[in-house]
Amino acid sequence: MISAATLAAHLNLDPFGGWALALPLAGLFALATVLGYARLAKPLSLPRRRILRILRGAAVAAVVFVLLRPTLVHVSTQYERPMVVFLADASRSMGIRDESPARAAAADRSPAMVSRAEALAGELKLNEPLLLELAGKFDLVAYLFGERLVPVADALSEPVSQRDPQVLRDQVAAMVAMPLNPEAQATRLGDHLAEACEAHPRRRLLGAVLLTDGQSCLSQIGPEDAARRLAQRGVPVHSVAYGAAEPTGAVRDSVAVDIQAPATLFAGNRADVVGEYVFHGLKGETVTVQLLADGKPVARQSVQVQSHRQAERIRLPYEATDPGSRRLELVADTVAGEQSGANNRIWTYVDVVRGGMKLLLVRGYLRPEGAHLSRALRRAGEFDLDTIVLGTPDQAAARLPRTPAQWAAYKVVLFDDVPRNFLSSEQAAALVRAVADGTGFIMLGGEHAFASGGYAGSELAAVLPVQLAAGQGQVERPVRFRPTAPGLQMSILQLESQDSGKAWDALPSLAGANVVGPAKAAAEVLAVGDGGETLLAVGQYQRGRTAALTVDTTWRWAMEGHDDPPGKYHRRFWRQLLLFLAGQDAASQSSLWVATGRPRYGLPELLSRRQSVVVTAGVPDGQGGLVTDATCSLRLHGPGPGDVRDLELAVRGDTYETIAPVSAAGDYRLEMAAFRDGRKVGEASTRLVVFEPDLELERPQADLELLGSLARMSGGTAVAAGRMEGLLRDLLSRDVPNIVRVERRRGLWDNGAVLAVFAGLLAAEWILRRRWGLV
């Protein structure tokens, strides 16, 4: 309740810069007024001179008036009862049953644990007399908060009369009976703490009382920031904390936190699906986690839970079979007494695609050639590339295959600057056997390749298409890669459907090469340098195809070439060379594809625009490259019935791109079709999931540390559940006067009237001076 009575009014002066500056300035202006008309350019009668001085003096007086900044101050006393704001948490975490039944209402007590919301309701009921006494002394306002801030009753936001006990009883009854249904999906603690108090900007707030477990999520204003704002206003934040801060058996729940799997997997390959789980209150239990592929169990793992809060990383194998988009789902079996079964499962999507020619790139050392080659092969989309980086013979012994079968698991093996002494005799012999049985092999140039790397006279020299001899070194000058006539007839060096020779001439020269001997019988030299040096030769070793590429800077073609898009020729050369070595140089070209940046997106990140679903699509040109002259259609199927949208694709480099408009949780499917020259190139599809994280139950423990911090920084009090009575008695004991002195100030100088007077005086003086011939 607020009422006021005016006591007095007085004028207050607040000179600009203080009196020490304002008085000299005023004297200076007065002196200028007197001296201004001491001498005139034209004689003027005394009455006229006096009129001009009066106008000038009045204008100076207006300036001095502004300098003194006079303010009219009205002083009054005001009857104003302080206000206490109560905020009760109605989020889902308040439904966790980890509170003692002694804290529930007497009529509701049972041997079992009760929810935090039930404990809160019980304490309000038990302390109803104290709340009634508090309402008799202070104005009370109460809110429920979660995702939104909701007043408990409209009457509670209005001033309360001390002389109307029935109104007080009704309001306290409404507060005690507030609907504490823990259903809100988030707790915007900081936002609502600030909002509830800022809703009463002209009231004296004795304090804000939080009735919560301290959980906070999706809040734009941090709880600490809100408490600091209130502290600046002199409002302490008190709290009554509900829930256990440490894991106990009272909260039993298996929470799926994350799932990781390859976005794309080649048919016939295996990959691990990794899930992250947190088990709450399940100490001593055995929880089984299953991996489902399109709803069918394919693997399982049992976890022995040894503590009341245990984080566990689950790794289960998945073998891709038929091409298509597959839903991979991890599901933890429900344990008796679990808080929620909905958060036991988590899923993602993987696109299983055809192809997947397995390649092994063995890198002796980290060099640019290997890095660019890896990037080009992965971008081609039809190779399943494994990379092994060595560095020392010991690492080679531990990492490289040791048996013919292990080498033969790959269609082609590539050696990038690998010294011979990195391989044991057993490993080298096994590789030779695998090549003889059909595995392709290529050696790239470098300081540790061919004869320079110690291969002359070795087992592997037998499989190479060129002869090696000790003492062969390096070509220490730039070389141009010039296809031979037979080379231009082979698919390996076909960079364009017409005039590949011109395309080769446009590529930059390379930084040197290895010196090798003549090609072996039945081998073919496909490219030479300006001096006739062999740069690329291919041959056959029993059932396996082999190649010697004596250069190691083809990455220059990707970085310095003039092809459009950049790197097209580099990717095409390597793709065709490896298809030849795998015996698939007549294989069909790669397929149309569509993909997103990831298979899983969090809805809060999408709605806040911290992330977006970027869709990228590629249309093959039939030669290992991509084209952008196709007509493409892209359709997005949402989770709801009839939720279908047609999306427009824009060209980005050599691919197509767009952003999918996603605004709801659920499973989505993208379907694409492409046409060129009036014929259909193909179709492609992919799926993704947009999930809404269960933020309220991811961490079910109460955050007592946060509530204590809010109290400390604002001068409030934090108490545990069951001690609300002490907090209410402390508030009742506050001796806060209801009569306050209020000053209302009204500036007399900072308004348009003063400016108008000043301008009018100057204008009148100027008009008279002009009329009387002084200007």
CATH homologous superfamily designation of the largest domain = Class I glutamine amidotransferase (GATase) domain
| Overall CATH class of the largest domain | Alpha Beta
Q: Treating each run of at least 4 consecutive H or I residues as one helix, how many helices?
A: 20
For the largest beta sheet, what order do the strands appear in spatially?
A: 17-16-18-19-25-24-23-21
Compute the separation of the termini in Å. Answer: 65 Å
Query: What's the rounded overall pLDDT mean?
Result: 86
Task: Indicate how many domains the architecture comprises.
Answer: 5
CATH architecture of the largest domain: 3-Layer(aba) Sandwich
The main sheet comes to:
8 strands, mixed
Note the overall shape. Answer: flat
Oligomeric state of the chains in view: single chain
Q: Considering DSSP H and I runs of 4 or more, what fraction of the residues is helical?
A: 25-40%
Report the C-alpha radius of gyration, rounded.
41 Å
